[in-house]
Amino acid sequence: MADLTQDQIENILETVVDIYTEKNLVASHAVDSIDIDGDKVTVNIVLGYPAASYHQTLADSITLALSNAGVNNSTVNIETKIAAYSTQKGVDILPEVKNIIAVASGKGGVGKSTTAVNLALALQAEGAKVAILDADIYGPSQPRMLGVSKLKPETTGEGKLLPILGHGMQSMSIGYLVDEESPMIWRGPMVTQALEQMLRDTLWRGVDYMIIDLPPGTGDTQLTLSQKIPVSGSVIVTTPQDIALIDAKKGLAMFEKVNIPILGIVENMSTHICSNCGHEEAIFGVGGGEAMAKDAGVNFLGSLPLEMEIRTDGDEGVPTVVKDPEGRIAEIYKEIARKVSAKLTQQDKAISAFPSITIE
């Protein structure tokens, strides 16, 4: 091939589409640099979302495109740099936390907390630094799901709480601060104050994504979230049945009204496969979550089956993404994580606050 130029290589890279951003690598500004040394080409790609499981597939696609164009001596390097993205106006940012993603459901019992913890761990497995905040004050479940329910957070000299590490991930929950069997008999203002304190009085460190596991419904906690917590986006969890979808639509409408972007919908418990005979049955209906996403014009992130292991893994404190990282269920959660974080990159980046200037 004749002497190669930057423009030639860029034209080739324009034919390679990132399946998660749905844009070609040039249009998505993923091409960091192109180095040409004679007939040898090195392409350096920087993705804005964690996708360790996708790097090799993308690299192979780039290598194939170059080879088809006559460039047979190529090297592809892929890395991830995660930025902070825009949140609601007038809400103070949280130091050391780039992005907050709320995981919500219209009603209880749809597997929201299980989805939240596995999504968080999937983001971590894909290469991000992740934290999870259990905002369900009345029914905290993350301490048990992370296998650290017996631990208590330490306090710094400045009165800050140190997050509890569960499977290498930072976490905070009211469940660490009270006895697991003690009921939280609190009115709404106490709940919202506790949520704010856990969020802002915890010494988070270098977090790319914080997952907030919300209580079901559209009450005080959700209102506090929209007014006082800088949220980059939300994920709605539902099951296919009509009753769950009705309530999920209310949650979706709430986020639209408070100007928090909806990153997508997850359908949980979509089908049940009999462990004895292998028969697959849609116990709660078929395609409800996907139809809801289409009607609302938002991403359908994926569906998860009704499997006993997903429940027992959480009960044992070793969520499925950690217990069986190469398994089918873990791959579904990782796929959802890649879709969620890639969708977030389509938003405007957060604007750094101007430094305060004092004139004396």
pLDDT below 50 for ≥5 consecutive residues: which ranges? 353-358
At the fourth level of CATH, the homologous superfamily of the largest domain is: P-loop containing nucleotide triphosphate hydrolases
- SSE ordering: HEEEEHEEHEHEEHEHEHEEEHEHHH
**Which sheet architecture does the biggest sheet show?**
8 strands, mixed
Tally the structural domains.
2
Number of strands: 15
| Fraction in helix | 25-40%
Structural class: alpha/beta
Relative strand content:
15-25%
Summarize the structure.
The protein is α/β, with parallel strands linked by helices.
Based on the model shown, name its key terms.
Rossmann fold, disordered C terminus, 11 helices, 15 strands, alpha/beta, 33% helix
Protein architecture, described:
This protein has 360 residues and is an alpha/beta fold. The chain has two domains: 6-80, Fe-S cluster assembly (FSCA) (GMP Synthetase, Chain A, domain 3), CATH 3.30.300.130; 97-344, P-loop containing nucleotide triphosphate hydrolases (Rossmann fold), CATH 3.40.50.300. The chain has helices spanning 6-13, 52-68, 112-125, 142-145, 188-200, 220-228, 242-257, 288-296, 308-315, 320-323, 328-344, and strands spanning 17-18, 23-24, 31-37, 40-47, 73-80, 97-104, 130-134, 164-166, 169-173, 207-213, 233-238, 262-267, 272-273, 280-281, 300-303. α5 (188-200) crosses α6. Mean pLDDT is 89; it is low at 353-358.
SSE layout and pairing:
Elements lengths: L5 H8 L3 E2 L4 E2 L6 E7 L2 E8 L4 H17 L4 E8 L16 E8 L7 H14 L4 E5 L7 H4 L18 E3 L2 E5 L14 H13 L6 E7 L6 H9 L4 E6 L3 H16 L4 E6 L4 E2 L6 E2 L6 H9 L3 E4 L4 H8 L4 H4 L4 H17 L16
Parallel strand pairs: 4-5, 6-10, 6-11, 7-9, 7-10, 11-12, 12-15
Antiparallel strand pairs: 1-2, 3-4, 8-9, 13-14
